Amino acid sequence: MPSPPQTQRSVAIIGAGVSGLLSYRHVIAHPGLHATIFESSSSVGGIWSPAHPLHRRDMQTNVSRHTCTFSDFPWPKELQGKDLYPYAGQVGEYLKLYRDKWVKESDLRLNTRVIASNFDEVKKRWKLAFTNPSATGEMVEEFDYLIIASGFFSTPYTPPIPNLDASNIESIHSAHFTDGKRYQDKTVAVVGGSLSAVEIAGQLTTYAKRTHHIYPRPFWTFPRYIPTSGSAQSIGKPYFHPMDIVFNRRSSRQAVASDTDLSTASKNERRNTFFLSMVPLPHHPIEPSDRPFVTFSDSYSISVRTGIIHPHLDLFASVSPDGGVVNLSSGAEISDIDAIILATGYTTTLPFLPPSLLEAIEYKEDDRFVPFLTHNLVLHPSLPQAGFVGQYRGPYFAVIELQARWLASLFAGELPWPSAEVQHAGVETERTIRENEPKVQFPHSDYVALVDLYASLSNLSFESGATAGATDIVTASNYPVVHSSETDEVEADIQRTLDEAESGTYVSAAIFRSLHGSWRCERIITSDIPGGMSGTFSGTATFHLRPPSVLPEGASKLPPYPLVSPEKEKAREYLYSETGTFRTSTGSEFTAQRKYIYRYQPSSDTISAWFVKTSSSLGKQDAGEIDYWFHDIVVTQNGSQSTVGQWFQDHVTPDEGWAASGSEHLCIKDLYCPVYRFVFGSGLPGDPSTEVREFGIGYDVRGPQKGYVSEAWYSRC
Predict the structure, then answer these.
(1) Which residues pair with 716 in a beta bridge?
(2) Where does the record locate the signal sequence feature (predicted)?
(3) Is residue 401 scored above 80 in pLDDT?
(4) Torsions phi, psi for 484 (to 5 deg)
């Protein structure tokens, strides 16, 4: 590396979130530049930092860690587990490690709020005014360049709602939602059609008595793991990948790609058809030519189908003066509301820019889609020697990193600054996007195109990874600053995920998610010992989602792996309850009931079955205290070649669906050998490949006084 020049040009960076940290790292990569970060809070990371007022530590990302990875900074080994979707607290830890590696303490001004910025036309420098609790009054410094990285989702937006403030109903903006526990046994109204609205409504199903979701337009809801196209869907045996890994492939982007994402009927129809093959049709149907809106949740769709979430395609009009009743624009009313969560979005604020510059970039505070106009989301001809990084709706790490690299190269003089004419043309393109009706969900949603755009602007060459599979996934590591062992580890982590997905990992997550709700159950019990009871059971089985139990360390039988606290593990849990009529082979019949507990452990991608304490299972349907471990459910790729293939032959062929076996369980002197078969949808319209359509549970039981086979088949009610 050449020696730095004696006089470096200075760069001010407003914000120490993802955009600010990346901007700093790529500015200082140029010997002629020096950077200073101004951050109003006490730590780096923006909304991912525990110090941020809107930080939700247990909020899970909508994209996998691969989309939340910088080009040459892999996630720590201890976080490279099978649970691919990190929580906000984990992203905050990742950003802190990045700061520790790259940012000099002397270049980071924490607890420092920029209150004004002006460009001096004579000096050709930016003058920043800022405050800090450790100093008295306002301070001023000058810089050669300015990067605005203060975040797009700046301020929670709450629309004016008559009587809301005067009501006795508890209400918050979704930005202040922490978890569902505080809404235990309450009736909650969630307002808005945003990603947060659907995610929060889904989280509430574990705790709330009832959830009403009020939204202005229909939308598709995707789980975090989705099947790849053509992956054995015809036999109900799809392989699952992280949702963003499927969508962010160069080889498959045509199904959802669009340059500037302007809404057209043909484009909408192509997308809606593609989505229909993967997930259930929304509760309020979408016409083929309608603009598609997409949300993500592992529990929302099934909770709507099972009646736990009550959807309302309507507008939230007001709250009754005496409280407790929500009035909708259609005239409908929702009564007995205990709490309201307003997932109504955010506004972008730029309080440090003077009115003249806000006017120049045509800033509109109430526009939550395109609040200001720029060239390529970064530059504006009225902002000399300055640029935006990460200031658009729906920013991803790779796009932000490549924006920062382009801007840093412009500052360093390594790339020519676009002419005013070119920038004005870019601003007009953005104006077209702003004025396009109807509005699209994300004005710049073509992630692949954006990554390639900034790589092209920076004259970066695409670098193939060690494997074709990892190379096909679009990440910033496709364009490393310098190829290093860290870049190799980023790509190796992606390849491990692809290999695990193709071996059947993540199928368990899809199975567990799909079980939620009620099923018809038909069971045949065949005894092969003298005097044994044979017969049939017909009834209903329900998988009731509930908060995970504290595992019983003192139980008589535990699983053969360490127990982890539910809070740390983020485990999910169903109480399984069945009731129906058992008819013996001799003609007598009686009512039969049973309960189990099923748990899913994300870090190991494991489903386990547990017994319920008999004394605790009486009374309410959702009553049942965990007792001791029964078995784990292990999915196998070659079910037709195992003994599992001999089961459920009245319902499926040996190759159909995913086979699974349960670990053998010795109950006193009786040995239980469980088997399972899970058949997913075909991917045809109305039969989504993300959902289990039907499944079977069988037991072969052997002991001194027992010898029978139990085979149950379940179909959705």
Answers:
(1) 519
(2) none
(3) yes
(4) -140, 175
Cα dihedral value 543, 658, 635, 640, nearest 10: 140
Tell me the one-letter amino acid at 523: R
Query: How far is residue 635's CA from residue 501's CA, in Å, rounded to a whole number?
Result: 12
Q: Count the Cβ atoms, other than its own, within 10 Å of residue 93.
A: 19
d(CA 228, CA 213): 30
Name the residue with higher pLDDT: 99 or 261: 99
Residue 349 contacts by C-beta under 8 Å, 6 or more apart in sequence?
A: 154, 155, 365
Predicted local confidence at residue 256, as pLDDT = 46
First-residue to last-residue Cα distance in the chain: 67
The span from the CA of 476 to the CA of 395, in Å, is: 13
Give the strand pairing for 326-328 and 316-319. Answer: antiparallel
Residue 451 has pLDDT above 60, yes or no: yes
Strands 386-388 and 145-148: parallel
Domains: count for the chain: 3
For residue 559, name the pLDDT band (cuts at 50, 70, 90).
low
What's the rounded Cα separation, in Å, for the pair 576 and 545?
9
From the list 144, 150, 124, 108, the residue with the least C-alpha distance to 14 is 150
Q: Is 290 helix (H, G, I), strand (E, B) or coil?
A: coil
CATH of the domain at 632: 2.40.128.20
Structure tokens at 160: 């004016």
Global model pTM greater than 0.70: yes
- Per the CB < 8 A criterion, the answer to whether 541 and 621 are in contact is no
How many angstroms separate the Cα of 251 from the Cα of each of 254, 473, 474? 8, 9, 10
How far, in Å, CA of 116 to CA of 127, rounded? 8
Residue 712, number of CB atoms within 10 A of its CB: 19
Beta bridge partners of 281: none
Burial 328-344 (b: 16+ CB within 10 A, else e): beeeeebeebbbbbbbb
pLDDT of 556 > 70? The answer is no
Beta carbons of 661 and 218 less than 8 angstroms apart: no
**Which of residues 10 and 276 earns the better pLDDT score?**
10
What CATH number did the domain enclosing 441 receive?
3.50.50.60
The answer for residues whose C-beta is within 8 angstroms of residue 452's C-beta and 6 or more apart is none
Question: Would you state the pLDDT for residue 563?
Answer: 57
Do 49 and 130 lie in a common domain?
Answer: yes
Pairing of strands 692-702, 707-716: antiparallel
Give the C-alpha distances (Å, rounded to integers) separating 263 from 384, 442, 458.
33, 11, 29
Query: Strands 658-662 and 626-636, how do they pair?
Result: antiparallel
Q: How far apart are CA 135 and CA 128, in angstroms?
A: 16
Peptide bond into 438 cis (omega under 30): yes
pLDDT (tens digit, 9 = 90+) per residue, 26-54?
999 999 999 999 999 999 999 999 888 88
Question: In this structure, are residues 397 and 67 in contact, taking their beta carbons and an 8 Å threshold?
Answer: yes
CA distance 369 to 247: 22
The residues, ordered by sequence, that sit 6+ positions from 7 with a Cβ below 8 Å of its Cβ are none
Residue 44's nearest CA partner among 5, 70, 18 is: 18
Sheet holding 33-38, edge to edge: 108-109, 33-38, 9-14, 145-148, 386-388
At residue 223, does pLDDT exceed 90? yes
Domain that residue 247 falls in: 156-346
* Of residues 62 and 262, more confidently modeled: 62
**Which of 318, 346, 374 is the C-terminal boundary of a domain?**
346
Residues 83, 99 share a domain? yes
Q: Which two structure tokens, joined as six digits, stand for 87?
A: 């929580």
Distance CA 390, CA 118 (A): 21
The answer to whether 347 and 155 are in contact (CB under 8 A) is yes
